[in-house]
Design brief:
Chain lengths: 182, 325
């Protein structure tokens, strides 16, 4: 009986350690590209936040829509006012899981898949995207590229600017989770 | 002994419960761990969509390296003695036309050059203007409202009149010059509603006999969104005239002064903004519609007007070179 208690205590303490295995970043970069014959649009946010559980593989990303910077400010205004409706939907987020999980203690480059729910403009859709992990000295860098069909998220493009905004937008995410020892 | 076992049993249960809680809340742990997004006095954007409501200016300027090309048009009276079917509800006439170019020196400073026909005797107007954002409203109400300064200098190029009591009996370039200063105080109350108050000061170097060279006025305007791209806009100006001079001018010229009121629809698509409006003011320039509006809504002397604004950006997006990761 005593052994059982010890065992359960151990299990409990392991799960407590799990909680400490969450790596975070507050400077993840998210870039998106819309490319048409008429116009290329690129916007970038370098202040997305993320939390990643390196043991369970659970992953969370969050970005403030108004943090996306456009080379043309009027475009940025239109992005927030007319398309993302950032007053109503200020945040976009992704909740998912990474599998298979690489060995984060060994330096190297690994590929895995992220599957989860992406919420943009109040509409959630399931996505699967390839992720590349680069591990150097305990620091984890994760990169991914995937495509979002803007109409999937209830974002309407008026006929007049239909040729300026692509149907599919390419999204790139780069984030570095620094080692806890740093 | 039995009690002892019971105690041990409960000891077993407790960590088991805790363990399942931890497992179930894996996403909650991430929620707790994720850094909070810092927002430091984020500026409110698009209090108004255009730099003008109908007659008056909004607090908005254009962004750096942008050009705003704007055409304003006012037709003749829709109804009343000068309107109706004979004048095709005012469409046969144009009381004023203005063509303007604005340029964004920075996100806060816009300079403009415009040419307007002019609706009173003072015609062939050239306007130089500057708009400067003094304060910008923030989303956290650290700054609860926006203040923008608007200043313009309008020169009338019309041939000088020989009648010394005329508004155009100019002797030199100085006489032809008019100044307008406004402070536009605006607040975006909600994503769909904004309003503004505009204390204004006008100085006309030369006016008709007994008209005021200096005039204070207060403007008010609002914008209410009807849909994502269509909004209802309204603005009004209240000039503080000297009563004796006003009565004299009304008697001599057989006119009455009215306060300009405009209502309209604003439609926005990409870089274009269209305004369809109705206003009793015949003129477009501040130095004319504030002191010299002599047409009345109640007499059918309101007119259809429109403005078209097209914004061009000279900040070029760089062509995408990299592909994939």
């Amino acid at each position: 009986m005593k052994n059982l208690i010890v065992f359960l205590m151990l299990v409990l303490s392991t799960s407590t350690i799990n909680a400490q295995q969450i790596r975070t970043s507050s400077s993840a970069t998210i870039t998106f590209f819309s490319s048409t014959i008429v116009e290329d649009i690129e916007a970038k946010s370098a202040s997305a936040t993320s939390a990643f559980d390196v043991v369970s593989g659970n992953l969370l990303f969050r970005v403030k829509n108004t943090s996306f910077q456009f080379p043309k400010k009027l475009m940025q205004e239109h992005f927030n006012e007319n398309y993302m409706e950032s007053d109503t939907y200020p945040l976009s987020d992704f909740k998912g899981k990474i599998s298979p999980l690489p060995d984060f203690t060994k330096d190297g480059t690994y590929t895995a898949t992220a599957t989860g729910n992406l919420n943009i403009h109040g509409v959630t859709k399931t996505y699967t995207a390839p992720v590349t992990f680069t591990i150097t000295g305990g620091n984890i860098t994760a990169k991914t590229v995937f495509r979002v069909r803007i109409s999937d998220h209830g974002i309407k493009v008026p006929a007049l600017v239909f040729k300026n905004i692509a149907e599919f937008v390419e999204v790139r995410v780069v984030t570095t989770y620094l080692s806890k020892n740093n | 002994m039995k009690q002892h076992t019971y105690f041990l049993y409960s000891l077993l249960i407790l960590p088991a419960i805790l363990f399942t809680t931890v497992q179930a809340s894996a996403q909650d742990d991430l929620e707790k761990a994720i850094p909070i997004i810092k927002t430091t006095h984020e500026k409110v954007s698009a209090t108004f969509k255009s730099t003008k409501l109908i007659n008056g200016h909004t607090n908005e300027t254009i962004y750096k390296n942008e050009m705003d090309f704007k055409v304003d048009h006012r037709f003749g009276d829709i109804a009343g003695s000068n309107g109706g079917l004979r004048q095709f509800f005012g469409l046969d006439q144009s009381t004023d036309v203005r063509i303007g170019f604005d340029y964004g020196l920075s996100d806060r400073v816009t300079v403009g050059l415009a040419r307007a026909k002019g609706a009173t005797a003072v015609q062939q107007l050239y306007e130089l203007s500057i708009k400067y954002r003094l304060l910008e409203q923030t989303t956290d109400d650290h700054i609860p409202f926006a203040i923008t300064f608007f200043g313009s200098n309008t020169i009338a190029a019309i041939h000088a009149s020989d009648d010394p009591t005329s508004a155009t009996a100019y002797r030199n370039l100085g006489d032809r010059t008019n100044y307008v200063s406004q402070l536009i105080i605006a607040r975006k109350m909600s994503p769909g509603f904004s309003f503004s108050l505009t204390p204004s000061y006008l100085h006309r170097n030369f006016t008709t006999y007994r008209d005021q060279n200096e005039l204070f006025a207060l403007g008010a305007g609002a914008r209410a969104k009807l849909s994502k791209r269509v909004a209802l806009v309204i603005d009004y100006f209240l000039p503080f005239r000297n009563t004796a001079d006003k009565a004299y001018l009304e008697k001599v010229n057989n006119v009455k002064f009215y306060n300009p009121l405009g209502v309209g629809l604003e439609m926005e698509t990409g870089g274009h903004i269209f305004h369809l409006n109705f206003t009793n003011a015949a003129a477009i320039e501040e130095m004319q519609f504030i002191p010299s509006t002599t047409s009345s809504w109640l007499k059918g002397q309101y007119r259809w007007g429109f403005s078209i604004s097209r914004r061009f950006s000279f900040n070029h997006t760089k062509k995408q070179v990299e592909t994939g990761t």
